[in-house]
Each structure stands twice: as C-alpha cells, then as structure tokens.
Specification:
Radius of gyration: 22 Å
Enzyme class: hydrolase
CATH architecture of the largest domain: 3-Layer(aba) Sandwich
CATH class of the largest domain: Alpha Beta
Helix content: 25-40%
GO cellular component, one term: cytoplasm
Shape: globular
Number of helices: 9
GO biological process, one term: proteolysis
Family: Belongs to the peptidase M18 family.
Protein name: Probable M18 family aminopeptidase 2
Distance between the termini: 18 Å
Number of strands: 20
C-alpha cells in the first residue's frame, strides 16, 4: 500500500475519534457510517425474517453489525471482528456537585486502569448520555458532548510536594475531583449545565452516564508526521478498522464468501461483565437469530459456528525505548511495522497456530506486514475479548492489535501506517478471497 491511502485512513480515524468521546458516541459514529453504506438498523422487537444485506443492532455502548450476501445459505460461516468501544477515564458520580476550601468541584470515579498522572493539568470536557422522560412513560436517550474546557484536575505544585518525582502514588480517593469554579457547591449545577448543552430541561433528566474527556484534538507527531497521537486509540483504532473493513466487504466488487460480522462491545476495560460486554450472550443471540431469520435450523447454527473464525482486535504494546527491559527481548514490535499477533500460552490471549495461519495468510494477500507479540514472562500480560469470545462461541480466535505507546493514557500514540494495515487485513479476512 502506498503512503497516501494510509494517511487517508488515519485522517478518517482522527475524525472518528474526535466525534466519539464516549462509548455511546462510538456506536453513533459507527452506525452513521454503516447507514451511509446502506446498512439498516434492526431492533429486538422487529421481525427479522428474510433480512439480508447490511444490518446492525445497537444497544447503549455496544454494536453488532453484519452483512448477508444475497442467496447466502443459513449455514454460511461467520467471519467476526471483535473490538470494544470503551476506554479508561474518569466518570461522573450520581451526586456530582462537591467542593472544598472555596472551590467548586465535580465528583468522579475511576473507570478501568487509568494512569492518573496523565489526567492531571488537562483541559477536560464532558460527554456521554442522558436518560430523559419520554412519551407514555418510556425513557428516551440523548447524547451530549461538551468540547469546552470546563474542568481540570490540578497537580500539586512541586514546592508543596518535593517527592512528586519519586514515584509517590496519587491518592485515588481525595485528589481527583476536578475543579470548575470558585465558591460553595451548588446542588444540581452540573445537571443544569449538561442539560442545557443537550437542549433539554433539567427536570426531564432521570439519570445519566457521563464521563470526562481531554478536549485536545487528535493529530500527528514526529519529524515526518509518522505517528498518530490521540485519546482513546485503545480501542477506537480497532473499531474504526472493523467498520471500514465491514463496509469494504459489503460494497466491494467481490461478494464475501462468509457472513462478515463486527462485534463492538462495551465495558472491556472493567471485565466485560455487563449486558453489552463480551461475557454477555449478546453476540451469540444476535448471530443465532440471524441464522433463524434466513430459515436456518439448530443444525445450520451449529454449522455456521463450526466454520467460523474470529479476530479479536485490541491495541498492543510497542517496545518502549526508555523501558525496553519490560518487554520480551525477542518480541519488540515497533510502530509502522504492521499489526501484532498476540500470543500467551496461559490463554490471556486466545491465539493458536491455526489463528496465526489465517491472519498471516490474509496479511500476505493484503500486502500488509505484521509482527509477533509476547509479553515478558516476568510480568503478567493484559487480556482482551478474544478468550471470552472463544469460550462463549467455541470458535477459533486470534488476538491482534496495532502496537502503540502510552496505553490507557489520556493521550496515546501509534504509527500512521498501522491502522490502515489492520483495516486491509480485516477486509481480506471478512471477504475470504
């Protein structure tokens, strides 16, 4: 692939990230792109009988999308790309208005594995969704995105803490309430501000899922602009690549030999244990229902799974130049060297030799490089949705990811070429050529 397509892909990725500060916005951004490509949304209460073409189901911060080629048999195997929509951050408490010593502050909780120092002294906005009164007593939902410098978690001056550079941990309970004004706390102030931004009456707000995000826009870095720097690369790089691949598979000249599927789950960063997480039956139920909608039997469902393959796509670690001893000495991925294939014999990743063979063969056909990744044996590695999906569906699964630095930071880094490489490989796997 030439440099131009890679830069075009990453330009589009940066637009996707900027529009998606919360998992709910990720789903909305993905749905918008799918609908533009001719996909249509199905609801659980709809009749799915005979549904073909591009289809998707969204639920809060999760989205399952698939493409049924015309005339596809009910037992046609699936090619699944699994990703997640959530990222570690600071989330607003139910009773948020607080403060001390003449400052008005907002109470937050820590979501996922957050390197707290990366959230200090940053200009923060608010995003998420509001649950509102609706007609006939049925609640409705409204997304909200305030890209304004409303809040900040100020770091203690070094004059008041000479040990700050000695690795002293930030107090997780007392020192992360962002400031946003002077004066005594005003009950309901945050709600009024957020409701106004959404164009809603605060009296109609019954609940919310709100979080903070760094308002600095994503961009490029380096002498040759060879790096992408942005919030939430983990895991919006993979969601964006999965959406791109699914659309390309559905609209390309060659009809897919399989049923390509994108599964974007929520709550991966906290264990995936929710109705929209990878441990839930969400994907299983939607895929089995899609088989039944095409007249399939239980036998067809079993055959579709028996021939299925899943790529679990999540960010990976590039070798860190200042901490190279933390990495396996023989597995040191670098940005722009292609996606990594992640292996862990203790099944923190679901990769085996069969999965490696399918992925690397697709990489060859796509003309994209790839790199192996293994964690240092002295340190436990992270995990992804791969093992959960493999265990839930019983399908061959490979864990892969774009290598980057500063994972889980408020602002992460990866190579400019790797997101495009990943999308090209995923497209090849989905189409099955």
């Amino acid at each position: 692939m030439t440099p131009a397509p890679h830069r075009s892909h990453t330009d589009d990725l940066l637009s996707f990230i900027a529009a998606s500060p919360s998992p709910y916005h990720v789903v909305a951004s993905a749905a918008q792109r799918l609908e533009k490509a001719g996909f249509r949304e199905l609801r659980g209460t709809d009749d799915w009988t005979g549904a073909t073409g591009g289809l998707f189901v969204s639920r809060a911060g999760a989205l399952i999308a698939w493409y049924v080629p015309e005339g596809a048999a009910a037992h046609t195997p699936f090619r699944i790309v699994g990703t997640h929509t959530d990222s570690p951050n600071l989330r607003i408490k139910p009773a948020p208005d607080t403060g001390t010593s003449g400052w008005r502050q907002i109470g937050v909780e820590i979501y996922g594995g957050v390197p707290l120092n990366t959230w200090l002294d940053r200009d923060l906005g608010i995003s998420g969704r509001l649950a509102l009164r609706g007609p006939d007593g049925v609640p409705r939902s409204r997304l909200v995105q305030i890209d304004e410098p409303l809040l900040r978690v100020p770091q203690l001056a070094i004059h008041l803490d000479r040990s700050v550079n000695e690795g002293v941990a930030l107090d997780r309970q007392r020192h992360i309430a962002p400031i946003w004004a002077l004066g005594e706390p005003r009950e309901g102030e945050l709600l009024r501000r957020v409701a106004a931004a959404a164009g809603e009456d605060p009296a109609d707000v019954l609940g919310w899922d709100l979080m903070l995000h760094d308002i600095q826009p994503p961009g490029y870095l380096g002498v040759d602009r060879e790096f992408v720097v942005a919030p939430r690369l983990d895991n919006q790089v993979s969601v964006h690549a999965g959406v791109t691949a699914l659309v390309d598979a559905a609209t390309g000249a060659a009809q897919p030999a399989f049923i390509p599927v994108l599964a974007a789950f929520d709550h991966e960063e906290v264990g995936s244990g929710s109705e929209t997480g990878a441990q839930s039956p969400l994907l299983e139920r939607i895929l089995s229902r899609s088989v039944a909608a095409r007249g399939g039997s239980d036998e067809d469902w079993s055959r579709a799974l028996a021939g299925a393959f899943c790529v679990s796509a999540d960010m990976a670690h590039a070798v860190h130049p200042n901490y190279s001893e933390r990495h396996d000495p023989d597995h040191r991925p670098l940005p722009n060297g292609g996606p990594t294939v992640k292996v862990n014999v203790n099944q923190r990743y679901a990769t085996d030799s069969t999965g490696i063979a399918v992925f690397t063969a697709a990489a060859e056909r796509a003309g994209a490089p790839w790199q192996p990744f293994v964690s240092n044996n002295a340190m436990p590695c992270g995990t992804s949705i791969g093992p959960l999906t493999a265990a839930r569906l019983g399908v061959t699964t490979v864990d892969v990811g774009v290598p980057g630095l500063s994972m889980h930071s408020a602002r992460e880094l990866c190579g400019v070429r790797d997101p495009g490489y990943l999308a090209a490989i995923l497209t090849t796997i989905m189409v099955g050529d």
